[in-house]
């Protein structure tokens, strides 16, 4: 099982879509406060459709609370546009933690400094960023492909 981590997600529709993606890929979703919405938000539930009840998810009040639950910090991979290594060049394993930042600014320098493994998603210079749900889909898809080989 992969662990998908959203640090301070802001848009309920993205989180709902990622929740549905996690159900479909049998991944666990970890949500770190503060959120830009309530878990009861109708947009979150609408995007997650009726799959939300099947979602394996946990929430944490802050980064430190989440970090305390990680058994092997070397298996935590943070997605950052500032990284030099592509997620396509990484070797993923079952149980890995894939970490994504908030939609408006990504992961903070403080969070990035806590871990060594930073990965980027290749993108054309014509585009500033991908949608958060799409970014998760790229990386989960590659990780699941590798794990199933």
What proportion strand?
Answer: 15-25%
> Approximately how much helix is present in the residues?
25-40%
As residue ranges, the low-confidence spans are: none
Mean pLDDT: 93
Rg over C-alpha atoms, rounded to the nearest angstrom:
14 Å
User: Within the largest sheet, what's the order of strands?
Assistant: 3-2-1-6-4-7-5
The total beta strand count reads 7
End-to-end separation: 15 Å
| H/E element sequence | EHEHEHEEEHEH
Oligomeric organization of the protein chains: single chain
- Can you summarize the main beta sheet? 7 strands, parallel
Shape: globular
Output the number of helix runs.
Answer: 5
The helix/strand class is alpha/beta
Task: Characterise this structure.
32% of the residues lie in helices and 18% in strands. The chain has 149 residues and is an alpha/beta fold. It has a seven-stranded parallel sheet with strand order 3-2-1-6-4-7-5. The longest helix has 17 residues, at 132-148. It is globular, with a radius of gyration of 14 Å. It starts with a strand and ends with a helix. The relative contact order is 0.21. The mean pLDDT is 93.
What's the helix and strand layout?
Blueprint: E1 3-7, H1 12-25, E2 28-32, H2 42-48, E3 57-60, H3 63-67, E4 76-79, E5 85-86, E6 97-100, H4 109-112, E7 118-120, H5 132-148
Parallel strand pairs: 1-2, 1-6, 2-3, 4-6, 4-7, 5-7
Helix pairs in contact: 1-2, 1-5
């Amino acid at each position: 099982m992969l662990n998908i981590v959203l640090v301070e997600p802001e848009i309920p529709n993205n989180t709902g879509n990622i929740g549905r993606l996690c159900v479909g890929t049998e991944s666990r979703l970890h949500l770190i406060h503060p959120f830009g919405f309530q878990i009861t938000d109708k947009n979150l539930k609408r995007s997650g459709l009726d799959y939300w009840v099947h979602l394996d998810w946990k929430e944490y009040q802050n980064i430190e609370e989440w970090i305390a639950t990680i058994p092997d910090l070397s298996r935590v991979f943070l997605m950052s546009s500032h990284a030099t290594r592509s997620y396509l060049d990484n070797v993923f394993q079952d149980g890995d933690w894939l970490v994504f930042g908030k939609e408006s600014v990504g992961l903070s320098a403080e969070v990035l400094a806590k871990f060594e493994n930073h990965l980027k998603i290749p993108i054309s210079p014509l585009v500033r960023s991908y949608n958060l749900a799409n970014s998760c889909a790229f990386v989960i898809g590659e990780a699941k492909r590798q794990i199933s080989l």
